[in-house]
Design goal:
The complex is a heterodimer. By secondary structure, chain A is an alpha+beta fold. Chain A has 2 helices and 7 strands, in the order ββααβββββ. In chain B, strands 1-3-4-5-2 form a 5-stranded antiparallel beta sheet. The chains are: A alpha+beta, B alpha+beta.
């Protein structure tokens, strides 16, 4: 059973996740966001937000978003130089968690590198959700 | 003009980036939910979403943010993928039927880096996302 993010405290580190970015998935992503620009670059270029979306997807397989969660802000830096051939490794931790007026504000730091250790992306997602969604154990 | 040629355009402070405009539909939101693995009912369950403060389904923030990334890819090409940085806040909800326009203006160029103010707005001019995007030198 997947734990809810609402139940996790500040400092929680998620288990490292390894995943592959297949060309088929990238095609699905590009179709979903209707990205007409990336196709004009080098073959196999990947939209940076595809990497972010797939990493967040991997994270959500470890911890579910609380019902009614809202994305507040996003920071991302990326370094994608050509095709991503290797398996990817994502690491995430809850960098901050606070509560105000019945809402929890939580920031999650996320880093992604390939299996050779080359950094590809790092970011910080901040979400908010009702405090009634749960409390840390 | 090829994308690689456009990469070399020297943007200067005050320049507007070519905007990107998309029309959101529930089908597109559903498609993104599948690709991104985020099936939060706020995005895909109209009955649930009707009971929330939003009164209906809303698009994923990362879907709307992808329009800014597409705009940056079109303007800066491979440089955006290789050395991009984003820092944004999600300020409003994008709904099915909305026409969303991503826009940007160069704020500063320095040492090979280009810093842009970026935003997504709906057809009524309401700001959905605002922040900064940078292509580093």
């Amino acid at each position: 059973m997947t734990v809810s993010l609402a139940a996790l405290p500040k400092g929680h580190e998620f288990a490292e996740t390894t995943f592959k970015m297949t060309q088929e998935w990238v095609s699905d992503y590009v179709a979903a966001v209707e990205d007409e620009a990336v196709g004009s670059l080098h073959d196999h270029s990947i939209p940076p937000l595809a990497l972010a979306a797939l990493s967040i997807r991997a994270l959500l397989e470890r911890a579910a978003l609380p019902e009614g969660a809202i994305h507040v802000s996003q920071e991302l830096s990326f370094s994608l130089r050509g095709e991503v051939r290797h398996a990817l490794v994502a690491r995430a931790r809850i960098a901050s968690r606070g509560e105000r007026q019945g809402w929890v504000l939580m920031s999650i730091e996320l880093t992604v590198e390939d299996e050779t250790g080359t950094p590809l992306m790092n970011g910080r997602s901040t979400i908010t959700f009702p405090a009634t969604s749960g409390t840390p154990a | 003009m090829t994308q690689q040629t456009r990469d070399r355009r020297a943007y200067k402070a005050g320049d507007e980036l070519p905007p990107v405009t998309k029309v959101l539909t529930q089908e597109k939101i559903n498609r993104y939910a599948e690709a991104g693995g985020d099936r939060n009912p706020l995005h895909v369950d109209s009955a649930f979403a009707a009971t929330t403060q939003f009164g209906g389904t809303i698009a994923h923030g990362m879907l709307v943010l992808a329009y800014i990334s597409e705009m940056m890819t079109a303007a800066f090409g491979q440089r955006w993928l290789a050395s991009g940085r984003l820092k944004v806040r999600f300020r409003g909800a994008a709904r099915q039927g909305d026409t969303v326009t991503a826009s940007g203006r160069v704020l500063r160029t320095e040492g090979g880096s280009t810093l842009c103010g970026v935003a997504c707005r709906n057809q009524d001019g309401e700001t959905l996302i605002s922040g900064e995007a940078e292509v580093r030198g």
